[in-house]
């Protein structure tokens, strides 16, 4: 099966605007990065500040184009200008600050916005908007202005606007980082649910290790390269390596580490509080 996202030996550096006439190539922030993502995967992409996560995300829906190498989305090269619309319809992005994605004066119109600008038939817009609002649990907020909503609710509106386009893949870039801990957990749980129910390919970018426990595959970036790639239980096995990568170790992993040191035999799957509890008192 060919991958939905196929990133082949990508090198990318931001142009240096202050020195446009000098022949000084920018320092690459992605360095010969290759990565294949299959349809339906649920991936958490980790890495500390500046490791290149957002840059990689922007390359995946043709907001940026690689200096070298290729990014193929469902077989379409992002360099092919004729395919940009198809690529952006396939890969939706949700960003850190929902306010940058909210445009209309009431929730329902906001969710409909991208479909309306594409000139779709009214009945089809209505059907998709209803489904998207229901999927993220905001149908009851439809007539409210987004400014009256909480941060978590606004992020749900932004997510519904993307879902209405029926993408095959959603990349969330630190989409929970401006939220309080409860909303953060709720949005993470919602993304998990959308992946399961709608078979969406999901790439959740975060610097919070705790959000990785639900994923099927965890990818860790460092200095523009992928340095770890595997299931969460495998990635979480070497906490000292994660510490070296300046990732904050979540409480359940610290607890499991202490219990193991005290002689309690926990398996590598004990990465959440409920999994630890299950092994201690089944
Ligand atoms: N628009 C830009 N112009 C120039 N340099 C940039 C730009 N955006 C990012 N960079 C640089 O590229 C590198 C990678 O940045 P990127 O935003 O992809 O990292 P990140 O892993 O998403 O970091 P964070 O966790 O802070 O979001 C950093 O050194 C950053 O300073
Ligand atoms: Mg970023």
Automatic annotation (TrEMBL):
<dbReference type="GO" id="GO:0005524">
    <property type="term" value="F:ATP binding"/>
</dbReference>
<keyword id="KW-0472">Membrane</keyword>
<keyword id="KW-1003">Cell membrane</keyword>
<keyword id="KW-0067">ATP-binding</keyword>
<dbReference type="InterPro" id="IPR050095">
    <property type="entry name" value="ECF_ABC_transporter_ATP-bd"/>
</dbReference>
<dbReference type="GO" id="GO:0016887">
    <property type="term" value="F:ATP hydrolysis activity"/>
</dbReference>
<dbReference type="InterPro" id="IPR003439">
    <property type="entry name" value="ABC_transporter-like_ATP-bd"/>
</dbReference>
<dbReference type="InterPro" id="IPR017871">
    <property type="entry name" value="ABC_transporter-like_CS"/>
</dbReference>
<keyword id="KW-1278">Translocase</keyword>
<dbReference type="InterPro" id="IPR003593">
    <property type="entry name" value="AAA+_ATPase"/>
</dbReference>
<protein>
    <submittedName>
        <fullName>Energy-coupling factor transporter ATP-binding protein EcfA1</fullName>
    </submittedName>
</protein>
<dbReference type="InterPro" id="IPR030947">
    <property type="entry name" value="EcfA_1"/>
</dbReference>
<dbReference type="Pfam" id="PF00005">
    <property type="entry name" value="ABC_tran"/>
</dbReference>
<comment type="similarity">
    <text>Belongs to the ABC transporter superfamily.</text>
</comment>
<keyword id="KW-0547">Nucleotide-binding</keyword>
<dbReference type="GO" id="GO:0042626">
    <property type="term" value="F:ATPase-coupled transmembrane transporter activity"/>
</dbReference>
<dbReference type="InterPro" id="IPR015856">
    <property type="entry name" value="ABC_transpr_CbiO/EcfA_su"/>
</dbReference>
<feature type="domain" description="ABC transporter">
    <location>
        <begin position="5"/>
        <end position="248"/>
    </location>
</feature>
<dbReference type="GO" id="GO:0043190">
    <property type="term" value="C:ATP-binding cassette (ABC) transporter complex"/>
</dbReference>
<dbReference type="InterPro" id="IPR027417">
    <property type="entry name" value="P-loop_NTPase"/>
</dbReference>
<keyword id="KW-0813">Transport</keyword>
């Amino acid at each position: 099966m060919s991958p939905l996202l196929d990133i082949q030996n990508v090198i990318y550096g931001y142009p240096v605007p202050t020195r446009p006439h000098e022949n000084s190539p920018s320092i690459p922030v992605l360095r010969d990065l290759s990565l294949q993502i299959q349809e339906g995967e649920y991936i958490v992409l980790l890495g500390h500040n500046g490791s290149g996560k957002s840059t990689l995300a922007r390359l995946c829906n043709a907001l940026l184009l690689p200096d070298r190498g290729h990014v193929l989305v469902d077989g379409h090269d992002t360099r092919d200008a004729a395919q940009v619309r198809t690529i952006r319809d396939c890969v939706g992005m949700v960003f850190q600050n929902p306010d940058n994605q909210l445009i209309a004066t009431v929730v329902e119109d906001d969710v409909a916005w991208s479909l309306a600008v594409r000139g779709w038939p009214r009945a089809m817009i209505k059907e998709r908007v209803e489904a998207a609002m229901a999927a993220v649990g905001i149908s009851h907020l439809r007539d409210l202005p987004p400014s009256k909503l909480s941060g978590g609710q606004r992020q749900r509106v932004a997510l519904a606007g993307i879902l209405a386009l029926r993408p095959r893949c959603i990349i969330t870039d630190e989409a929970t980082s401006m939220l309080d801990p409860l909303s953060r957990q709720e949005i993470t749980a919602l993304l998990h649910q959308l992946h399961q129910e709608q078979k969406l390919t999901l790439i959740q970018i975060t610097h919070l290790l705790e959000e990785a426990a639900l994923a099927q595959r965890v990818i860790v970036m460092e200095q523009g390269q992928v340095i770890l790639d595997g299931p969460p239980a495998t990635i979480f096995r070497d906490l000292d390596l994660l510490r070296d990568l300046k990732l904050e170790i979540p409480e359940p992993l610290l607890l499991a580490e202490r219990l193991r040191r005290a002689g309690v035999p926990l398996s590598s799957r004990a990465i959440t509080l409920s999994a630890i509890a299950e092994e201690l008192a089944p």
